[in-house]
Amino acid sequence: MPVAKVNGVEIEFEPGMTVLQVAEKAGQEIPRFCYHERLSIAGNCRMCLVEVKPGPPKPQASCALPAADGQEIFTNTPMVEKARKGVMEFLLINHPLDCPICDQGGECDLQDQSMYFGRDASRYAENKRAVEEKHMGPTIKTFMTRCIQCTRCVRFITEVAGVPDIGMISRGESAEITTYLEKSVDSELSGNVNDLCPVGALTHRPWQFHYRPWELKKTETIDVMDALGSNIRADSRGAEVMRVLPRVHEGINEEWLSDRSRYVVDGLTKRRLDRPWVREGGKLRPATWDEALGVVAGKLKATKPEKIGAIAGDLQDAESMKATLDLFRALGSANTDCRQDGAAIGGGEREGWLFNSGLAGIENADAILMVGVNPRVEAPLLNARIRKGWLAGRTEVMVIGEQAELTYGYQYLGAGTKTVGKLPKAAMDVLTRAERPAIIVGSAALTGETGPAVLGALGKLAAKVGVVADGWNGFNVLHNAAARVGGLDMGFVPGQGGLSAVEMVQKGALDVLFLLGADEIDASKSKAFKIYLGSHGDAGAHGADVILPGAAYTEKSGLYVNTEGRVQMTERVVFPKGEAKEDWAILRALSERVGQTLPYDSLNQLRAKLMADHPTFGRVDYLAPARVFGVDKLGAKGDLGDVVFAPALKDPYLTNPIARASETMAELSAQRSAPQLMAAE
Q: Which of 106, 232, 677, 681 is deepest in the core (most CB within 10 A)?
């Protein structure tokens, strides 16, 4: 390996590294504004100046200078210090004195670096320039007078998000960062530009003037707005979650976060259920916990086991589903299901419902067939990974289903089941000659009467073209619900002779229906006595006869399994609202009243039982290696017909009760349906 000297200390480095990377490997701090590890090199800000020998007798930008064997790098010479002070002085010529009112204050790169690397006074007395603010959408608040043209936002939107809506116009002092034709930024990842901005020119519009960073309590937890399980940090003040920021996890979300996951937090305080309710005379009235649980217990005990059932919602933690499953099995009911959409998965080998290649592993696929899935809206961070492989020229993408703009090129094969039944020869050739072929199937293809047949046909195709082989498993199911894989792993599906979720909500199917946070299924036809346990007054609560207030995902510690089968744990950020309780505790109290006391008195005991019954839940943050399984045995034989795959998410910003309670999600939804109107306002 080549060797360079950094301030007189020899350091080995890998070929292709820059001087900045070598210096940081040696433990030297190099200031920077434009450089970012995951973006292309721009060399705009000139803050990372160092002295290099051999080389010209002047400071050089270390971010754009390749390191060489035998090079001598100096990061703290008088020449370097003087040059950095001069650069900082230039950067601050037009910067306004906004620190007391700037949302970036307290966590601002410009503040920190000007204190450490800058001068203590400016020699410029000229008037500062002012730049008109720009409209970039509901998530981005602009103060463009602060902008130093580092172009981080431009590079992220263009390279990672794949939506080149932001760019630079004019030259010299007139240079400005703006959106093209003053339109809103049309990206599901737009909030990341606010994180990237080092000077407060772009800040989070939904949280403007809401907090100061040092006021917030920081809790590391997991996102549940989609099935990826992005690692996040939830910041709270008092009883309110004020903001959500991404944490670095290379295997899942790198250091990015989708707008739905980031800005949904205002929905955590609105439309909340904070006390039990019981319906009398057609109207709901407040009740005590003892009274509400007594009514529920009376109904359950008075009803035959085959006439009671439970449906688990998309945001439920594994502990609450385990308690529900144990209770209803103890009552003798086989009517349990966690698949509100009726997807044809569950039973058999675990790999049959996982994203087997792993979220990071999909970047290595050289041919991807997407069936009934739109990753740009269903899983934006996965879409960014697929785009990364496509940009590198190693991935060819083919699509069956919705013909949407995915931010990368693809070959469109057809709209539905007819194409699945007979794949074009060119597509078969691409999959056959690929070394690491992959199939990504979404819930749009797995629901409805043709779901089992589609899964069966894709399983046969996967076996034929070698999607599953030693060292590579490219058969991937992309879920939308954070609770889905955990529910399937523990067997939260109909037992012997039990009804599915779709069957349970039919008229006359059940006499008592328990909705565990289930809001995405239409239960209006069912005349059953409905019990709803959840956190928000949404669809499930509107038709309920008894409402039991539960905890949102930021108000409890719980296990979730993401779409690739990785178990992760959320941490409690704030306490449940009002009289609300943690879901498992409500179910434990209910079990006593029906005479089937669950065998655990604490969350730790419940987890021990869960892990004993299903060992996969005991391996937190573990991703199982690729394994060969009977992919050709998935699904069932049947007539594929000619069914068009409809989009799985009607509105990606209104997918669950928390999102539907959020004002920011409503604004994003409105922008998605009428972007021109939003830009004109």
A: 232
> Which CATH architecture describes the domain 3-91?
Roll (3.10)
Q: Report the alpha-carbon distance of residue 204 to residue 213 in Å, rounded.
A: 13
| 503/76 Cα distance (integer angstroms) | 72
| Residues β-bridged to residue 233 | 220, 245
The span from the CA of 483 to the CA of 235, in Å, is: 23
Segments making up each domain of the chain, as ranges: 3-91, 109-207, 277-345+484-618, 356-478
pLDDT in tens, 340-371: 999 999 888 999 999 999 999 999 999 999 99
CA distance 553 to 570: 7
Q: Which of 365, 364, 366, 390 is nearest to 376 (CA)?
A: 390
Alpha carbon distances (Å) from 107 to 103, 110, 113: 9, 9, 11
Q: Hey, what are 34's tokens?
A: 């434009």
Least confident of 28-32, 171-175, 377-381, 611-615: 171-175
Q: Checking DSSP bridges between strand 140-142 and strand 202-204, what pairing results, if any?
A: antiparallel
Give the architecture (CATH level 2) of 277-345+484-618: 3-Layer(aba) Sandwich (3.40)
pLDDT the model gives residue 124? 87
**pLDDT tens digits, 518-529:** 999 999 999 999
Q: How far apart are CA 265 and CA 262, in angstroms?
A: 7
Query: Per-residue pLDDT averaged across 592-617, rounded?
Result: 96
pTM over 0.70: yes
- C-alpha distances (whole Å) from 563 to each of 157, 470, 560, 657 are 26, 21, 10, 21
Burial of 492 (0-12, 13-18, 19+ CB in 10 A): buried
Has residue 675 got a pLDDT over 90? no
| Residue pointed to by tokens 């309590």 | 217
Taking the C-alpha atoms of residue 106 and residue 203, their distance in angstroms, rounded to an integer, is: 13
Tokens of 610: 């869960």
Provide mean pLDDT across the span 171-195.
91
The end-to-end CA distance of the chain, in Å, is: 57
For position 431, what pLDDT does the model report?
95
The alpha carbon of 19 is separated from its chain's Cα centroid by a whole number of angstroms, namely: 34
Helix (H) or strand (E) holding 260: helix 259-263
Q: Over the chain, what is the mean pLDDT? A: 94
What's the longest Cα–Cα distance across the chain? 90
CATH 3.30.70.20 fits 109-207, yes or no: yes
For domain 356-478, the CATH architecture is: 3-Layer(aba) Sandwich (3.40)
The answer to whether 569 touches 559, Cβ cutoff 8 Å, is yes
Average pLDDT over residues 320-339: 96
Inter-CA distances, 19 with 14, 24, 26, 370, Å: 11, 9, 11, 41
Extract the runs of DSSP E, i.e. beta strands, from 508-553.
Answer: 512-516, 529-534, 546-549
Whole-number Cα distances in Å, 77 to 19, 47, 69, 83, 440: 16, 15, 21, 10, 54
Query: DSSP assignment of 189-215, as one string?
Result: TTTHHHHH-SSSSEEEGGGTTS--GGG
Closest alpha carbon to 563 in 393, 391, 385: 385
